[in-house]
Structure formats: structure tokens, C-alpha cells
């Protein structure tokens, strides 16, 4: 399959869906023309056509939130692109990781069904609390108290995990581990460390 298989609309555009390579979360949708697709292939970062400004734009050029292309596919009709990327920072200009944060229908799941993206979602909620404080929020309490309080809580929760691991009750270990992860996510937000940096470091360790 070649570029000749791409079917552009009457304006010479094709929609491009951008997906996080690791989490598989859909980050955004934008339009490409032949030139922006060629520049994407040449540079390894995403380029789009701005319909409002009438010109090409390189995602991350002003924000630093570049998208490094890992793969490009197109659908069976050749009229939609799926681009998997390594996202630096956030994809949305509002400051959220994904542009698709407005929920029309709440997903249905039972209480025992696990959400494999819960860490990313929790990180984003903590980040939002930092930017938009909410009265009575424990997360904002930690941000108000500062780094020393956060480090104290991480130390306490780490000790609780050790104690729980010595006991036969699995539920206790699950509970304390969740507490530790939450406080670590608060700490990462305080230090402005995105989860992507942690993922990249972990990726080095499974080889």
C-alpha cells in the first residue's frame, strides 16, 4: 500500500486520528493534506493542515508537546489515517492529555471490572486539582502543605505497604499499595514529571 491509496476529500484533506502508542488512548483528531502527510513522514513528527488559519502546523512547535510518530495506518476505504505516537506532554491545548475529555455517555462497567487506564486518569485528575483547586480536596491539602508533607506521606505509605505484605490479608496489601501509588502521583505532579517519563524509564527495564 502506498500514498496513492489515500483518498482526500474535495478540499484535499483527510482526517487523522492520533493515538498514544503505549496507553492506546485516543489523543486528538486533526486534518492532513498531502503536503502535511509528507512532512510528517519526513520529520517523524506530526504535521497538520489548519482549516481556520489556512496553513500547515507542526504539533508542539509552540508548546513543546511534540508527537513522535511510531506508526501510520489507514482504514479499509483509505479515507482516514490512524497515527500512533509518543506524546510529549499533553495533546490538548486546554492542558489535558487527550482532547476527548467531554463525556456524553458514561461507560458502563460492573464494580469488579478494572480500568487499565486508571493511573493515567488519576494523574490527570490530580493535575487538574493543582491547576483548579477544589475546596475540601485532600489532593489540594497536600499541594498546600508542600513537598515535605508529600514526602512524609510517601514514606508512611511505603511503610504501610511493607507491613501489609507481611500479613496474610491480600486486600490490605492492595489497599495500601493503592494509597502509595496515589501519593506518588501527587509527588510526580508537584515535581512536574509526566507519566511518559516514568513509562520510558520502565520500558528500558523489560529488555
Summarize the structure.
This protein is α+β, with helices and mostly antiparallel strands.
Q: Could you explain how this protein is built, in words?
A:
With 207 residues, the chain is of the alpha+beta class. 40% of the residues lie in helices and 18% in strands. It is built from 6 helices and 6 strands. The strands form 2 sheets. The protein has a 4-stranded mixed beta sheet with strand order 2-1-6-5, with helices on one face. It has a two-stranded antiparallel ribbon with strand order 3-4. A hairpin with a 4-residue loop joins β3 (47-50) and β4 (55-58). α2 (118-131) packs across α5 (170-190).
Main beta sheet: strand number and arrangement? 4 strands, mixed
Task: Quickly count the helices.
Answer: 6
The Cα radius of gyration reads 21 Å
Order of helices and strands: EEHEEEEHHHHH
- Tell me the number of strands: 6
Overall SS class: alpha+beta
Low-pLDDT residue spans: none
Instruction: Going across the biggest sheet, name each strand in turn.
Output: 2-1-6-5
Shape: elongated
Specify the helix fraction band.
25-40%
Q: How many angstroms does the end-to-end distance come to?
A: 32 Å
**Could you tell me the mean pLDDT?**
91
What percent strand?
A: 15-25%
Amino acid at each position: 500500500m502506498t500514498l496513492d491509496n489515500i483518498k482526500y476529500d474535495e478540499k484535499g484533506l483527510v482526517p487523522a486520528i492520533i493515538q498514544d502508542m503505549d496507553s492506546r488512548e485516543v489523543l486528538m483528531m486533526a486534518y492532513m493534506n498531502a503536503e502535511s502527510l509528507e512532512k510528517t513522514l519526513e520529520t517523524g513528527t506530526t504535521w497538520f493542515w489548519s482549516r481556520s488559519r489556512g496553513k500547515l502546523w507542526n504539533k508542539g512547535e509552540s508548546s513543546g508537546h511534540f508527537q513522535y510518530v511510531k506508526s501510520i495506518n489507514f482504514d479499509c476505504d483509505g479515507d482516514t489515517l490512524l497515527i500512533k505516537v509518543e506524546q510529549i506532554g499533553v495533546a490538548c491545548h486546554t492542558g489535558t492529555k487527550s482532547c476527548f475529555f467531554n463525556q456524553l455517555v458514561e461507560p458502563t462497567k460492573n464494580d469488579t471490572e478494572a480500568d487499565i487506564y486508571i493511573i493515567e486518569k488519576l494523574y490527570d485528575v490530580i493535575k487538574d486539582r493543582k491547576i483548579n483547586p477544589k475546596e475540601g480536596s485532600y489532593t489540594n491539602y497536600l499541594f498546600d502543605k508542600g513537598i515535605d508533607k508529600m514526602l512524609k506521606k510517601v514514606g508512611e505509605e511505603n511503610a504501610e505497604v511493607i507491613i501489609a505484605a507481611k500479613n496474610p490479608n491480600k486486600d490490605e496489601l492492595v489497599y495500601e499499595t493503592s494509597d502509595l501509588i496515589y501519593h506518588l502521583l501527587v509527588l510526580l505532579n508537584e515535581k512536574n514529571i509526566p507519566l511518559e517519563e516514568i513509562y520510558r524509564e520502565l520500558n528500558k527495564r523489560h529488555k
